[in-house]
């Protein structure tokens, strides 16, 4: 009997207090000077304001995201082409996030209702997030206050399959994927990963990979993280990103370079220890790269953080970013949505679009085992399909 693997999320999620120090470490000299000047001005304004507002200080709500977070968000929107998109917000597209849940009390979700919720961990009927990762990923897609999600108009399904410890069983996540399918999702976003099932890519003993294959057969797009073991790489992307027609997402920094933790794809195939067939275009792994270093996120309440906003580094964030961006393409081209597709035809068409229309590195002419076919450029994809 094959044991179920455990799925883990090894992301760095940092709240805004910690992010102040990270900004000093990673920002360039201009940002540092700007931040210092901004802080001095802010302190002056605060000291003046307190003279008049001191009696009501205890009623002041949480501040919004810092200037650094907004700057980083804008930089990533530019590098992925989101800043070129107008009049598209994902409306009419159903996107399902399988993760640790969602904190609907967050001000970034102000006035929002989710399309569906299912708790596979604790069977609670109301949405919650006791780990924080799911709220961060959902915010990348649908935040409508402070930070701006890249597809705030999608109909959002949320399946909780990750526990408060940040892990989930293969079977539980498999059932969550099945639930997304039953609820008519167009896109399933999996910001998680684990060991590949035996025979992955040939035949598989893995329940999650089988569920993913069944979703793909219905024309549902599955977007999954490449993994975060780039500094101690095991030789291939994680499952289910390793499945052939899944869109597997690696990570980049704000200057477009490969994020140091992003996992490499093994596209030559192997016999041992786990047989994998050689991969061919447009299914070489990872297919694309997206924002993965210090990506602005929402922070769930009640999990030891002090702020509503922070940042995350990891291919999980890149996966959520690409999932939301893909929803814009499906809104613009509803014929690509799964109900209008014959089996995997639309998935194959979109993967061809990705292969020919992603932004490669300077000097890159073909798939790269870290950089994929390039940065996912939603503006270029939409133009190519128009």
CATH superfamily caption: Peptidase S8/S53 domain
Put simply, the count of helices is 9
What is the alpha-carbon Rg in Å?
20 Å
Number of extended strands: 14
CATH class bucket: Alpha Beta
In spatial order, strands of the major sheet run 4-7-3-9-10-11-12
| Biggest β-sheet description | 7 strands, parallel
**Overall 3D form:** globular
Helix and strand layout, with pairings?
Blueprint: E1 6-8, E2 12-15, H1 16-26, H2 29-53, H3 67-79, E3 94-99, E4 116-119, H4 133-142, E5 144-145, E6 147-148, E7 155-160, E8 167-169, H5 170-182, E9 187-190, H6 207-217, E10 221-225, E11 247-252, E12 288-291, E13 295-298, E14 309-313, H7 315-332, H8 345-357, H9 378-385
Parallel strand pairs: 3-7, 3-9, 4-7, 9-10, 10-11, 11-12
Antiparallel strand pairs: 1-8, 2-14, 5-6, 13-14
In short:
The chain has 386 residues and is of the alpha/beta class. It contains nine helices and 14 strands. β5 and β6 form a beta hairpin.
Keywords:
386 residues; alpha/beta; Rossmann fold; 7-stranded parallel sheet; 3-stranded antiparallel sheet; 9 helices; 14 strands
């Amino acid at each position: 009997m094959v044991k179920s693997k455990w799925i883990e999320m090894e992301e760095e999620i940092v709240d805004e207090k910690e992010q102040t120090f990270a900004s000093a470490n990673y920002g360039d000299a201009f940002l540092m000077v700007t931040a210092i000047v901004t802080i001095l001005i802010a302190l002056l304004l605060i000291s003046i304001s307190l003279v008049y507002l001191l009696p009501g200080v205890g009623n002041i709500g949480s501040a919004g995201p810092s200037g650094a977070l907004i700057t980083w968000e804008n930089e990533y929107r530019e590098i992925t082409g989101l800043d070129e998109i107008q009049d598209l917000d994902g409306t009419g597209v159903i996107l399902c996030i399988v993760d640790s849940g969602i904190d609907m009390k967050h001000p970034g979700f102000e006035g929002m209702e989710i399309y569906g919720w299912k708790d596979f961990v604790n069977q609670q009927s109301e949405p919650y997030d006791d780990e924080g990762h799911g709220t961060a990923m959902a915010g990348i897609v649908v935040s409508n206050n402070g930070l701006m999600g890249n597809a705030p108009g999608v109909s959002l399904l949320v399946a909780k399959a990750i526990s408060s410890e940040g892990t989930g069983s293969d079977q539980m996540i498999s059932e969550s994927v099945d639930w997304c399918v039953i609820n008519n999702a167009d896109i399933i976003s999996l910001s998680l990963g684990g060991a590949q099932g035996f025979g992955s890519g040939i035949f598989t003993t893995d329940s999650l990979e089988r569920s993913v294959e069944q979703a793909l057969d219905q024309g549902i797009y599955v977007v999954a993280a490449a993994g975060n073991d780039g500094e101690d790489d095991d030789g291939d992307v994680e499952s289910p990103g390793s499945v052939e027609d899944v869109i597997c997402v690696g990570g980049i920094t704000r200057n477009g370079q490969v994020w140091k933790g992003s996992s490499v794809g093994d596209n030559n195939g192997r016999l041992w220890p786990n047989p994998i067939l050689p991969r061919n275009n447009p299914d070489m792994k990872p297919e694309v790269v997206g924002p993965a270093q210090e990506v602005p996120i929402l922070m769930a309440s009640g999990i030891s953080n002090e702020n509503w906003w922070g940042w995350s580094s990891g291919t999980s964030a890149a996966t959520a970013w690409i999932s939301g961006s893909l929803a814009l393409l499906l809104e613009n081209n509803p014929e690509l949505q799964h109900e209008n597709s014959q089996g995997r035809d639309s998935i194959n068409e979109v993967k061809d679009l990705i292969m020919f229309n992603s932004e490669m590195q300077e000097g890159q002419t073909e798939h790269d085992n870290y950089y994929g076919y390039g940065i996912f450029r939603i503006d270029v994809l939409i133009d190519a399909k128009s």
